[in-house]
Write a structure and sequence with these properties.
4% strand, EF_hand_dom, calcium ion binding, mainly alpha, 112 residues, Recoverin, domain 1
């Protein structure tokens, strides 16, 4: 049982230098991910009002959440209606309810 004897031996410190941070690591040159600002998120949602009616239906926030990087976009769209649709008409008004939608998206912490 040689391996038991090896465990009992004290570890000899190595004289070889240890590489802690190497410039050629695959993730070394990744840029820092910055969170979206309130204005950037507002512009994303406004840009997905494709029919320019001043309201977002369920499909439009779903596409906007996909642009922001959400995984379950249909769930996010449904929850965004639940958070922001004050009058219950299944639309998010860009005039009255967009602020609540933007606040909800900011809490989710999407990054650029």
């Amino acid at each position: 049982m040689r391996w038991i004897n090896d465990v009992d031996q004290p570890e000899v410190p190595s004289t070889e230098p240890r590489v802690v941070d190497h410039p050629f690591r695959p993730d070394h040159h990744k840029k820092a991910r910055m969170p979206y600002t309130e204005e950037q998120i507002r512009k994303v949602f406004k840009s997905f009002d494709k029919n320019r009616d001043g309201q977002l239906s369920k499909a439009e926030p779903e596409a906007a959440f996909a642009k922001l990087g959400a995984i379950w976009t249909s769930v996010r769209a449904w929850l965004s209606l639940w958070h922001a649709d004050d009058n219950g008409d299944d639309f998010i008004s860009l005039d009255n309810e967009l602020d609540k939608l933007v606040d909800y998206a900011l809490k989710l912490g999407y990054t650029l």
